[in-house]
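for the record, two folds in this file. i put them one after another cuz i was lazy. first one right below, seq on top, structure tokens after. the second one comes after a little note so u can tell where it starts
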Amino acid sequence: MKETNRSTLSLFALAVSSFAIGTTEFISVGLLPLIAKDLQIPVTTAALTVTLYALGVTFGAPVLTAVTSRVPRKLLLFWIMVVFIVGNSIAAAATSISVLLVGRIVSALSHGIFMSIGSTIAADLVPANRRASAISMMFTGLTVATVTGVPLGTYLGQQVGWRFAFVAIAVVGLIALFANSILIPSRLQKGVRTTVRDQLKLVTNGRLVLMFLITALGYGGTFVVFTYLSPMLESITGFSGGAIAVILLVYGIAIAIGNVIGGKVANKNPLSALFRMFIVHALVLFVLFFTAPFPIAGLITIMLMGLMAFMNVPGLQVYVVMLAERYVPSAKDVASAVNIAAFNAGIAIGAYLGGIITDSIGLIHTTWIGGFMVMGAVILTGWCQMLERKGSKLAYNNKQEAQLS
């Protein structure tokens, strides 16, 4: 019982950190109109705070995770949060889009490495049959961030200015730093030094590359729409700024519920669960094209989008770790980091694609294009299931032959 309580407290500390990081990752979505107005730039230029942040995670996560592989995990967590606080402080002091983007990129570097080692720490704290749930609990910080952090940050931005939202995030980062120092055990499993050869094996393994593509498409499809959700709610559905903050709160609650469900259903068979999730997710995005102009129908569909948005995260992350343990066990942390990079590559692609769509054919069309992006994940997940069944059958036949001989 004591061991279980200790693990729960450690997971709570990781969740506090992911709450801070999740808030800063998604806060720009609620602040886009305010940033654009204050800095006198187009909304699509302000959206670079989403795109470049995601790119910072995409490129920073695998590189920094590999470079810091021998640093004690608890010490590394400490410095991650220091960098996080510095990045958000720069953003809070920004008087131009250039300085704001520098702050966002610095914050992104801490994000990538935290999410990669945080996932493997969470998985190592519990028995194998609870890994997806443990990762889900860590990622609960991200979902709670969308429930409270992002709407509250949006409200603060609307009331006292968008810079104050970043000040508040830096304070939360300081709280997370102390939570890690107090609640995370010192005797964590050490990171394994990953050779260049193992890293190459990781990014050239067909099964892992396939999963990274699934992650980018399945998770990124939402961000074609979500990046511009505030402008869509304002200009298409017709809600006021105050109502949008409330809607983002309810949207976050839907995300939190979806994340918990995703962790539970992915424990036994991640691939099968992911396949079903992506099908429903794509259908919801297609339906949103028709319902977005209507307040009630649009809200219902947007809440369903929120329910599905993070549901796939635990399954994607735990299955990548499983594949890494099977094919490149010495690069497990880096595999987790690459998948975090894939999540953020999806965000960057989705946000950039959403900007192009918004400028060319209009906001409403982000919905069905995001749906097609998720459909790509459906097809690739089906392919991955086929390969898994084929591999299991081959392993079974080899076992039978060995027993007969």
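(here's the note) second protein begins now
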Amino acid sequence: MTAPFRVGLVGYGLAGSVFHAPLIAASEDLVLAAVTTGNPERAAEARAAHPGVRVAARPEELWERGASADLDLVVVASPNKTHVAVATAALEAGLPVVVDKPLAGTAAEARALAALAEERGLLLSVFQNRRWDADFLTLRRLLDEGALGKVQRFESRFERWRPQPKGGWRESGAPEEIGGLLYDLGSHVVDQALVLFGPVVSVYAESDVRRPGAEADDDTFLALTHANGVRSHLYVSATAAQLGPRFRVLGQGAGFVKYGLDPQEADLREGLRPEPGAAWGVEPERLWGRIGAGESPLTGGGIPVESLPGDYPAYYAAVAAAVRGTGENPVTAHEAAAALDVLEAARRSAHEGRVVPL
């Protein structure tokens, strides 16, 4: 038996408090040892939710006494504009690092971080939790089984109906904030497309600011052409008054259509936590996708496909194994850089109104 790794969590906003802290606390291989936040209310929330956790005001306080004095791993869940600087400081202090997506604002910055981690012999992993969504895991299984035949088109939607902007840095138009949906939800749908269908050779995008008072893109579409010929159409929006299917995948033999979002985020927001032996990430039957040909699932076509359970805890289990040296990095910085190549091309395409080759 080995002691769990001591984790320092930088940031206790939405990402830190809803996603990372609960998943770290639920892992047998990790313990949440410290949190950084300069917000007194969030500090109190962290202490209440995780008794015994040390709260610091600045990230540097986590490693000022030496890399191995108090921590074994740093998780960066602070605003996007801080990711590169905080990750760099933690790596230079000799600590393995997990960074929430997007890893950086540019692919060049992501590759520089990857080089630093490799130079120091340290883990640098990116939290792309949507690889462990129930629907994505189910689709990967279908593709591995060849259930659709050769895939021709992949449609993926991450749509919401939020007609009123909520404000904050995520919706800021300031370039240094790295806000907007292209780099937020777009990071997820692009990463999933690359995992499923591989490298992209060209990108076309349309990116708009629709809501009165909004500053950053809130309605964006990407069309990707993969090297293997698959075309991915990806939609991210906060202005979708009617939500489309989460996935629509068309192959030469059959299609797969899936509505509804994985339940794990909603459960975490409600305060539910994954527990050993208890059901987690299970979708109700009414949300299962359907596979078939020649008719819409909304008119009874196709056969229901039971969703595999979603499994966000698997990400941190893999991180712990990678730090211990018994497993592989679940999401590498080089993979994140490839996704940022696509996002940068999409931004350029939307601005210039043209297809951008990669």
